[in-house]
Description:
The complex is a heterodimer of chains A (about 500) and B (about 575).
Chain A: H1 5-18, H2 23-42, H3 46-59, H4 64-76, H5 80-93, H6 98-110, H7 114-122, H8 128-141, H9 144-158, H10 162-175, H11 178-191, H12 196-208, H13 212-225, H14 230-242, H15 246-275, H16 280-292, H17 296-309, H18 314-326, H19 330-343, H20 351-363, H21 367-380, H22 385-397, H23 401-414, H24 420-431, H25 435-448, H26 453-466, H27 469-482, H28 487-499
Chain B: H1 8-13, E1 37-39, E2 68-71, E3 80-83, E4 101-106, E5 109-113, E6 123-129, E7 138-143, E8 145-153, E9 156-159, H2 161-164, E10 172-178, E11 187-192, E12 235-239, E13 245-247, E14 260-266, E15 275-280, E16 286-290, E17 296-298, H3 300-303, E18 319-322, E19 331-334, E20 343-348, E21 351-354, H4 362-365, E22 370-376, E23 385-390, H5 397-400, E24 408-409, E25 411-416, E26 419-422, E27 434-435, E28 437-443, E29 452-457, E30 463-467, E31 474-481, E32 493-498, E33 501-506, E34 510-511, E35 515-516, E36 521-526, E37 530-531, E38 533-537, E39 543-546, E40 549-550, E41 553-558, E42 562-566
Parallel strand pairs in B: 31-41
Antiparallel strand pairs in B: 1-30, 2-3, 3-4, 4-5, 6-7, 7-8, 8-9, 10-11, 11-12, 12-13, 14-15, 15-16, 16-17, 18-19, 19-20, 20-21, 22-23, 23-25, 24-27, 25-26, 28-29, 29-30, 31-36, 32-33, 32-38, 34-35, 37-40, 38-39, 41-42
Amino acid sequence: MRLPYACLTAMCxxxxxxxxxxxxxxxxxxxxxVRAGRSLMVEGRYxxxxxxFLQALGLDSLDAEAHFxxxxxxxxxxxxxxxxxxxxxxxxxxxAHRRARHNLAVTxxxxxxxxxxxxxxxxxxxxxxxxxxxxxxxxxxxxxxxxEKTLLAALEAGGDHVDVRQQLGQLYLxxxxxxxxxxxxxxxxxxxxxxxxxxxxxxxxxxxxxxxAEALAVFERVIADDPLHIEAQYNLASALSALGRIxxxxxxxARFETLSEHAAQIARLRRxxxxxxxxxxxxxxxxxxxxxxDQLESALTHYRAAxxxxxxxxxxxxxxxxxxxxxxxxxxVLALCQQGIHQHAGDERIGELFFARGLxxxxxxxxxxxxxxxxxxxxxxxxxxxxxNNLGNALLALGETxxxxxxxxxxxxxxxxxxxxxxxxxxxxLQQGQLEKARIAYVAAITADSTFARTYYALAAVxxxxxxxxxxxxxxxxxxxxxxxxxxFLRQARARLAQLP
Amino acid sequence: xxxxxxxxxPLLACSPDSQDEPPALPQEAPAVRPIHFxxxxxxxxxxxxxxxxxxxxxxxxxxxxxxxxxxDYDGDGDPDVxxxxxxxxxxxxxxxxxxxxxxxxxxxxxTKVNAGLSHPGIGMGVAAADYDLDGDLDLYLxxxxxxxxxxxxxxxxxxxxxxxxxDDGNWGTxxxxADYDLDGDLDLYxxxxxxxxxQAAGAERIPYIANYESHRGQAPPSYPHPDSFSGQSDLLYxxxxxxxxxxxxxxxxxxxxxxxxxxxxADYDRDGWPDIYVANDAMRNSLYRNNxxxxxxxxxxxxxxxxxxDGQMEAGMGVDWGDYDADGLLDLxxxxxxxxxxxxYNRDGTFFSPATFDxxxxxxxxPLLAFGTQFFDPDLDGDLDLFAANGHVLDNVGLIDQxxxxxxxxxxxxxxxxxxxxxxxxxxxxxxLQRVSRGSxxxxxxxxxxxxxxxxxxxxxxxxxxxxxxHGNHWITVRLAGADGNPNGIGARVTxxxxxxxxxxxxxGSRSYLSQSQLHVSLGLGHRSQLDGIEVRWPSGRIERFGxxxxxxxxxxxxxRGISAQPSP
Lengths: 501, 569
C-alpha cells in the first residue's frame, strides 16, 4: 500500500524537524530504521521497507546505508534505473562504500553496461566480493585468461570460499582440465558438502570423461536433494541415455521437459515484464511459474509487484495471501484477506479469502472464528472439499462432533481423492469408539492416497483394537516402510509391532 | 601443385648441429603453418550487396537473411555463385524490388548473368540439386512468402514452384535435398520459422534482451524475440519421379510447430538411410531418425542433441555434420546466440556426448552470435576444422549491451587431434572483417585445391574469402556421380585412406545456414602424396572401392562405371 506523497513529505519534514538537536540520536534512529527496513525486506514487505529507508533518509539525507538498502530494494523489484540512482547516492555520501560500488556494478551489468561494470569492480582489487563477481563478467566478455587469474586473487584476498572454488571448477571443466576441475570441486564440497550445484558439476566432470555410471550416481543424488533442479534432470537423462537405459532416460526427459517449460515461461514472462512492468496479469503468471519451481521468494516478489501496481486486484490478493500462508506470514494474510473481503463484497471469489483467513484462525486455535470463515467460504462455493474438511476440523475442536462428521463426509463426497477428510473422519470415529466406521474411513483414506503413512498407523491401531492381528501387523509394517518423519513415531510403531501377539 | 615438402631434406642435412651426431631423419610432417584468408569479392567481380530492407518498424525477416550457394549451374566444372537477396517487407509504390543474383565463374572471375534467376521476393535460403535428373543443377529458394523451384534448362531457369507443388507460403528458411526414402530421386526438406505478420502493428512484442525497457526513449524499436510468435511446421516433400513433389510431412511424422532455421541431412546411425537434423530457434532441436519405412522418429533429446549442455533451449541457427575426431562417426555442430556456446556433439555409440567445451569450441564462441557454420579442411591436413559466420540480430545492440556489437568477426577454429583452437586472429585479413554475417558456403572457386569461403552478410556486401594458406599440403577433390536418381551422389559416404590417415566424409551441399556448398568432397592429405584408396557407399546401397590416386587432382567417381580423372590446374 502506497502512502500519499504529501503524507510522506510531511512525515519527512516532521522527522527532519526533529533531527538537528541530537545528531547521535538521529544516527542511532537512522540505523534502527535501516535495520527495520532490512527485516521488512526479508519478510517481503517491500512497501514498508521503502518507508523505513525513506524515513532514515528523512533524518539524514546523506545516510549512505539507507541509500544503499533502497538501491537493493529497487534492484530486487526490477527497478534498475532507480537502483542505480540509489547506489550512486550511497557512493556520493560515502565514497568508501564498497558494497554500494559492487552492487552498482552488478546493476550496470544487468543493464548491459558490462565494460562499465568491469571497470567499477576493477577499482576494488582487494575487495573479495568484487573479485568473486568480476570473473562472471570476464567470462561474458570472453576474457577467460582473466577469469582464472581473478578467481585465484579472490582466494588470496578473501580466503577460501565455496563460490570461488565452484567457479574455478566450472572454468576448468569448460577448458577440459578435468583433474583440476575435480580438485577445485572437492575443495568446494569440503567447504559446503550440501551445495547441490557443486555435486552437479562433479557429475558433469564424470559425464565429460564418459564415466557414465559415476555421473548417474551423482545426478541421482542431486535430484534426491533437489527434485526441481532442472539442469540435473537433463543431466540425469543424458547419463541414462548414454548407459542405454532408454525407458528411464525418457522418463527423466519428460520430467525435465515439464520443469523446463516452466523455466522457459519464466524467461518469456520476464522479458514481457520488462516491457510492461505494471502489467498485473503478467506478474501473476510469472509468480505462478516460480511457484511451480518452488522458487517462493521470486514468486513473492512478483505477487508484491502486482499488488503494488493494483492494490485492489482480487486475484492478486487471493494468490498473494495463499503464498504468504505457505510462508507462515499469518499477520499479513489476515490483513490482505480483510482488505479483499471488504473491497469485493459480493464477488464470489472472496470465498478463497475467507478460506485463507479460516486457516490462519485454525492455526491460531481460534476455532470459532475459523468455523465462521469456513462457513462463509462454503456459502460462496459449496463444492470446496478443503473448506468442508477444515470446517470439520474446526467443529471437532469445538466439540460439535455431529456437525464435524457431516462436514467431513461432505468433503469426502466433494473430492474422493482428498485424503485429509477420510483420515479425519476415521479419527473422529476412533475417538467415539466406532471402530468399524473408523476402519472404513481409514481404508477410504488409503484409496485416496496410498502413500499417506499416518493412515496406516491409525488403521493398525483399529485392527489391533478389533483383534485383527495379521491386518494390524501388515499396517504397522507399511507405516514403518513409508514413514519419513519423526523417528520417535517410528520407534513407537516398532514397539507396538513387537508387542503384537 | 606445391612441392615445398621436399625442401626439408637438404635443409636438415646442412644443419651445423648435426655434425657430431647421426643425421636426423627427415620429418615426415611439415610444421603447422597458419591458415590465411583474404577477402577478394569485389576484385573478382562479386561486388554485390544484400538488401535487408531494414525499416523503422524493424520487421523480423529483415534481420534473418540471407544465404546463397556455390553451385555449378552450367556444368563447366567450377562453382558459380548465387546470392539470395532480401528487400522491403512492406514495399512502397516507388520501391525498386531487389532481386537475387547469379554470377558465372570463369576461371576464378565472376560475371553477373541473367539466367532467369533474378527472382524477386524476400529471399532467405537456397538448395541446389538435379531433382529432375536432366543433368544440371536446379535450385529451390525459400522466402518470407511463397518459395519457388527454379528448374535449370541448360543454363536458363524456369520458375515452376507452383506447378511442382512446393510454393509453400510460410516463412521458409534452410532447405535441403536428399533421397530420404531411397527410391532413387531427391526429396526436399524445408524448414519454416515463425508466423510473422508485418501488418500486425502495435502487437506486443517480447524484446530480445531483458532490461531493454530501461532504455526506453533512448533506443529505436528493435527486432523482436522469436518467443513473440508461434512456430510454423517444417515440410518434407517426396519427389514424385521428377514430375513434382508431394507433401508427406504428416505421414512422415515431421513434428508440427517448430521454429526451424538450420537443416542438414546425414546418415548418422550408419544404417544407410538419411536422417535429418533441424536447428530450431529457442526450442528443442529435432533429430529425425529414419525408420526406413517413409516415416521418422524424433529423438533429439534422447540422443543428447536437443538442448545445450544443461538442457537449455538455445537459439539454434546453423548446422553441420562432420567426423572431426576421425573415429568414423559423424559428429554435429550447431551455432547459437551470444552467451550461448556453439554446440559440438560427439557421437559416442548410440548417444552424442557434449564436447562443446572440452573440444575447445565453447569458450571462443560465447561472446559471438553465430549463424552459418561448416566443418571443412582449409589447411588440407586431413582433419576437419570449423568455421562460424557471426553477426548480431539487433542493429542497435550497442546501445543496450556494450559487451557485443552488430558486426562481428567470424570464427575459425583449427582442429588438432580432436581439440579446436581459435586461430581467427592469425587467419589473415579475411578474418579481420566485422560484418553482420548470416549464410556461408564452402567451395573451391579458384580450383587450386583448397576450400574457399563465401559469406553472406545482412545488408552488406558479400564476402569471398580466398584461401591463400600456401601450406604445401596435398589434396584430392572427389566428385560423385550416382547412378539413376541421384546424379550428384548426395548422401554418399566416402571413406578415404592415405597412409595413416583415414577420413570419413558424407556428401551434402545443404548445411550451414540458408546456404549450399559446392557438391564435392574435398580431402586434405597433409604431407601424404597419395590417396591409397577410397570406398564409396552410394545412396543406392552399392559399395565400391577405387584407387590408388596421386594427390593434386579432381576425380569424378561414377557409380557402377569407374572413374573419370580431371587434370588439376
